[in-house]
Amino acid sequence: MGPLLDAIGPVTRRRSRALWGMVADDLVSGVWYLGRTLGREDDAVRAATRLLPTAMTPYHDGAGFRHLTIDDGRRHPTRTRTGCCMYYTIRPDEACGTCPRTCDAERLRRLQA
To answer: pLDDT digit string (tens) for 37-81?
Structure first.
């Protein structure tokens, strides 16, 4: 990923830390998405956490999963992205569910809906 990030960094006007944060987020999110798609979300959360358990060069944060519990007692995994997908700049009221700008109260509201 290094050469790709070196090439797109000047165009995106993002520095190394932000770009590697996006790589880590997409890696973890991809594993998580695949697990949800296959009906094996818990396995995917464990796999993504094993893949990126903590910060390690060049990634400055781990997968960072935690669980939110809705009113009926069901637990749902969530995480807060390390980087930013910038979707909020297009539709501010629809920031993604793992956005650092989305608080857990809003995540719970969306899960209950």
So the answer is: 999 999 999 999 999 999 999 998 999 999 999 999 999 999 999
17 residue type, one letter: R
Whole-number average pLDDT of the chain: 92
pLDDT of residue 40: 98
Q: Which residue has the higher pLDDT, 82 or 39?
A: 39
Residues 41-77 as b/e (b if ≥16 CB within 10 A, e otherwise) read beebbbbbbeebeeeeeebebbbbbeeeeeeeeeeeb
Q: Token pair for residue 17?
A: 């830390």
φ, ψ of residue 64 to 5 degrees: the values are 65, 40
Question: Angle at CA 40, nearest 5°, toward 100 and 66?
Answer: 30
Give the E-state strand segments of the chain in sequence order. Answer: 66-69, 75-78
Q: How many CB atoms lie within 10 A of CB 40?
A: 13
CB-CB contact of 48 with 65 (8 Å) = yes
